[in-house]
Amino acid sequence: MADSVVSRLVAWRARTEQPVALTALTAFDWDSFSVVRPPAGLALANCNREGFLPCDKDLQPPPDALIQVLRFDRAGQAVYQERIMVASGNFADPLPAAVPRTQATLVTCHDGQGQQLWCLQSQRRWQPAPAALRSLDGG
Fold first, then answer.
1. Is the peptide bond before 94 cis (omega within 30 degrees of 0)?
2. What angle do CA 131, 132, 136 make, to 5 degrees?
3. Which residues pair with 81 in a beta bridge?
4. How far apart are CA 44 and CA 52, in angstroms?
């Protein structure tokens, strides 16, 4: 998990509430980042190895459950993507889409239930998603 951007985000929040530039947490070249919400699909292939998530079925989302995926692009092509499998790594709605590297600074924001989420620093005020949408993401 040492190369996991999501684990670095979670660790950052555990240390401080200061904003974080995604460039400080990535070791690869990218132009923009997005967070998308696809179905979970099949269970993780790398569980139970080198500190990855356990394989227990109770810990895996159902294949049709919507999850968040952090994606980094360079020249319009994906260079890195990672499933966000922990609530403390989730992003607030509206999910970031094609955010340029120069604007990729994140801050902690809170949903209507006190859960900590990630928001873009440039967002003025985050509004919680309607309950129907939160339930799609397991919230």
1. yes
2. 110
3. 71
4. 9
